[in-house]
């Protein structure tokens, strides 16, 4: 049986102390930071050399180049200024002349010669005998209106659909001139009673107009059908009563005085 090998203490590796190891790490980091700071700074600018380029210059001073509107707006000194901005001045010299009056010659001995020549060369044609005729008598057609022989009442408007129950007798009216119609507007309720008569137009006689208002107020018309249960009463009917008057001449009250 073999004996185990014995390792000498001089052959075993030595371990560095912790403090020494930290110092070495710090030293290496310091060297790296110094290199970065030294080599990482901005490089000095390098001047580039440019190749010579062609240059243009004016032969002499030009004053109009100082105008900023030379190329932005139409300019007299531009490339087309001499063509359409510098128009030549045209001079107009009218000829002032006059001519003496040249009167037309009027030969008195030849007045009427043209008419005489026309009559001589163009004889008048002969007219044939015209038979006499008698014009027809034409009478105009006049509208025939029936004469009012008695005063009467005419109902117009919506009230014409309701029958007039009252027997109204306007009677004739005496006046100097012919009387026109008296028009009275009335309201008639559902029972046929006349309400609020108003004179719309007079006939020319106050007496006849008052007679028309009194007759219109006393007029009675046929009643309307009674409404059903729950239905409102129908509104009043509006209409006009036209009184056509028979005009009589005024009676003579004063006899003519006898001659002395």
Description:
With 260 residues, the protein is α+β, with helices and mostly antiparallel strands. It has a domain at 152-225 and 235-248: TonB (TolA/TonB C-terminal domain, 2-Layer Sandwich), CATH 3.30.2420. Helices cover 19% and strands 13% of the residues. It is built from 4 helices and 6 strands. It has helices at 18-39, 81-85, 113-121, 206-218; strands spanning 152-157, 173-174, 182-188, 194-201, 237-244, 247-248. The strands form 2 sheets. It has a 4-stranded antiparallel beta sheet, covered by helices on one side. A two-stranded parallel sheet has the order 2-6. A hairpin with a 5-residue loop joins strand 3 (182-188) and strand 4 (194-201). The model has no long low-confidence stretch (mean pLDDT 78).
Question: Distance N terminus to C terminus?
Answer: 214 Å
Based on CA atoms alone, the radius of gyration comes out at: 68 Å
Question: What low-confidence regions span 5 or more consecutive residues with pLDDT below 50?
Answer: none
**Helix coverage percent:** 10-25%
Strand residues, percent: 5-15%
The CATH superfamily of the domain at 152-225 and 235-248 bears the name TonB
């Amino acid at each position: 049986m073999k004996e185990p090998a014995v390792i000498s203490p001089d052959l075993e590796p030595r371990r560095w102390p912790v403090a020494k190891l930290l110092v070495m790490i710090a030293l290496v980091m310091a060297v790296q930071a110094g290199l970065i700071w030294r080599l990482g700074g901005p490089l000095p600018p390098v001047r580039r050399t440019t190749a010579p380029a062609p240059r243009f210059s004016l032969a002499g001073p030009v004053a109009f180049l100082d105008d900023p509107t030379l190329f932005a707006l139409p300019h007299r000194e531009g490339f087309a200024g001499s063509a359409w901005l510098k128009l030549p001045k045209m001079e107009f010299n009218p000829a002032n002349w006059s001519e003496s009056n040249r009167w037309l010659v009027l030969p008195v001995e030849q007045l009427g010669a043209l008419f005489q020549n026309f009559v001589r060369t163009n004889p008048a044609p002969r007219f044939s005998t015209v038979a006499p005729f008698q014009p027809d008598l034409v009478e105009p057609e006049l509208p025939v209106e029936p004469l009012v022989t008695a005063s009467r009442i005419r109902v117009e408007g919506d009230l014409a659909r309701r029958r007039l129950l009252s027997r109204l007798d306007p009677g004739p009216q005496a006046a100097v001139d012919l009387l026109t119609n008296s028009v009275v507007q009335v309201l008639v309720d559902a029972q046929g009673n006349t309400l609020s008569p108003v004179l719309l137009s007079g006939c020319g006689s106050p007496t006849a107009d008052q007679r028309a208002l009194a007759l219109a107020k006393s007029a009675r018309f046929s009643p309307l059908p009674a409404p059903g249960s729950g239905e409102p009463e129908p509104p009043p009917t509006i209409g006009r009563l036209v009184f056509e008057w028979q005009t009589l001449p005024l009676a003579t009250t004063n006899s003519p005085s006898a001659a002395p």
